[in-house]
Specification:
- The structure holds two protein chains of two kinds.
- Chain A is an alpha+beta fold.
- In chain A, 24% of the residues lie in helices and 21% in strands.
- In chain B, 68% of the residues lie in helices and 0% in strands.
- Chain B starts with a helix and ends with a helix.
- Classes of the chains: A alpha+beta, B mainly alpha.
- At the A-B interface, helix 1 of A face helix 2 of B.
């Protein structure tokens, strides 16, 4: 009697599938709770992108305007298309008298960046990360070249220089 | 022309009676054509909206209230597109093919009883007329597959031959089952017979089995997703209409949706009492039947959309196994069962 058993089993599994999709449909029709669509230009102000969204590369600064970048240039070396340029100089450390690398400008070319994320993975001090802003439209290409460290910022004490 | 003769009576006040007759034909044809176009646009919108809700999205929601004009905008875009074609195509058949599909869909819609008063063509073999006319659309799809001179189109067309001819058998046998119960093929009479109870209740067990088979075979007949091997996107590009563009493509697209509407409307007429209201609450008011007819039809259309966004596509051998090893034998037993019930007077 597997013939009739097949029919009954088949109908049962089909109804199970339909109940799952039907659940989604009616829940969304009446409550709109789980809808993932963002009505973008309308909710521009309150829109929060999800955590793993890759908008642009940013450098983290704390409240004292200090960052963690010690100008090791790992990110500049690994970047496949040369989107990052690091300008640095050697300054004598007042305590030990040794020469030490100091970051002047962390220049980031957003117009060349492919958001591959290698620079963020390679950064030993976690100084850079993903920002969630995606409103990059501009009339001038030069606007997309950004300096990531804020003016007047300095390195956080305690970040060791990597070889 | 049943009660639509009002139009010719009204017209005959102004022009000669013979002219009024032809003018009436033209007026009704224009009304049906515009209803047909609006229906197609509405169903495409409904499909996309329903699909959105099934997949935790919203669907089209920008153009017009609730996105209702989105499909109108799409249709305008398709009208403005160039009609392209392959140079090695059989030009005459290639251009002829869409009209087979669209005209048969239009012809089938003419016999549908939208309400007691609104029925353009009440032929006494209505159900037979619908099933025979819609089987002509296979030729259009077949011609498109052959004339495009494209391997994907050809495979799509050949699959149509297998699929639609197989499943037409099931649809026909369901119609025979219900005709056994009703004793008529005329659509208006079928509805009138259901005044005391819809056929799905009066015919109980065999009518319910017949409905299940009809909805499966009907989904296959209109080439919708669990059975869309004809235009399986992942295998065949767009199947038989790969080489079509612009309005020629839109004809196939609209005809698919209108065929779905026709299948649902036939299901409503032979199982759910056509334009009759539940428990006869509004049966005495003229033209309210249109609302009930469309409401019930949309419910069945929604059921078919539910299938589409739930079930995966069948393989070609599974498709044929389902039809020839399951639906046809069950259908044959079901006809005998229905005949027995009618003979013994066991229907309600």
């Amino acid at each position: 009697m597997s013939y009739i058993g097949d029919i009954i089993n088949g109908s049962k599994t089909l109804l199970t599938g339909m109940s799952i999709t039907g659940n989604y449909f009616f829940k969304n029709l009446f409550t709109r709770k789980d809808v993932i669509t963002q009505l973008y230009p309308d909710n521009m102000n309150e829109l929060k992108m999800f955590d793993r969204f890759k908008g642009e590369v940013i450098m983290f600064h704390d409240e004292n305007n200090q960052h963690k970048c010690d100008a090791c240039t790992n990110c500049e070396i690994i970047c496949p298309n040369g989107s990052i340029e690091i300008v640095w100089e050697r300054v004598a450390d007042p305590e030990t008298g040794k020469n030490k690398k100091v970051l002047l400008n962390h220049i980031y070319h957003l117009e060349m960046c492919t958001m591959c994320g290698l620079c963020i993975e390679v950064c030993p001090a976690d100084a850079i990360g993903w920002g969630q802003d995606f409103h990059h439209v501009t009339r001038d290409r030069a606007d997309l070249t950004k300096v990531l460290n804020k003016p007047g910022s300095s390195i956080m004490p305690g970040v060791k220089e990597k070889k | 022309m049943m009660n639509l003769t009002i139009i010719s009576e009204w017209l005959s006040h102004y022009i000669a009676a013979e002219v009024a007759f032809y003018a009436e034909l033209i007026v009704i044809a224009v009304i049906y054509l515009s209803v047909f176009a609006l229906l197609g646009l509405f169903l495409v919108w409904l499909e996309r909206r329903v699909a959105g809700f099934f997949q935790l999205r919203l669907g089209p929601n920008r153009v017009g209230p609730m996105g209702l004009f989105q499909t109108l905008a799409d249709a305008l875009k398709l009208v403005s597109k160039e009609l392209t074609g392959t140079s090695k195509a059989d030009k005459f058949l290639y251009k002829l093919a869409p009209y087979f599909v669209i005209i048969t869909a239009l012809m089938a819609i003419a016999v549908l009883p939208f309400s007691g008063e609104l029925q353009a063509f009440d032929v006494n073999i209505g159900l037979f007329f619908i099933s025979s006319v819609s089987s002509i659309s296979v030729i259009g799809i077949f011609l498109a597959g052959w004339a495009s001179n494209n391997k994907y189109s050809l495979i799509g067309g050949m699959r149509t031959g297998i699929q639609m001819i197989s499943y037409e058998l099931s649809v026909g046998m369901v119609v025979v089952t219900m005709a056994t119960l009703a004793g008529t093929l005329q659509l208006s009479e079928l509805v009138a017979l259901q005044k005391d109870g819809w056929f799905i209740f009066t015919g109980h067990v065999p009518a319910f089995i017949a409905f299940a088979i009809f909805i499966i075979a009907g989904t296959a007949e209109s080439n919708r997703t669990p059975f869309d091997l004809v235009e399986a996107e992942s295998e065949l590009g767009a199947g038989y209409h790969t080489e079509y563009s612009g309005m020629n493509f839109a004809y196939y697209f609209l005809a698919e949706f209108v065929n779905m509407f026709i299948i649902s409307a036939v299901a409503v007429v032979i199982f759910f009492g056509g334009w009759l209201s539940p428990f006869g609450i509004t049966d005495n008011i003229p033209y309210v039947g249109v609302f009930w007819f469309l409401f019930k039809t949309m419910a069945v259309v929604f059921l078919m959309m539910w299938f589409r966004w739930t079930f995966p596509r069948l393989r070609i051998d599974q498709l044929l196994t389902l039809e020839w090893k399951y639906l046809i034998p069950i259908n044959m037993v079901n006809i005998v069962l229905m005949a027995l019930l009618v003979w013994l007077g066991l229907t309600f």
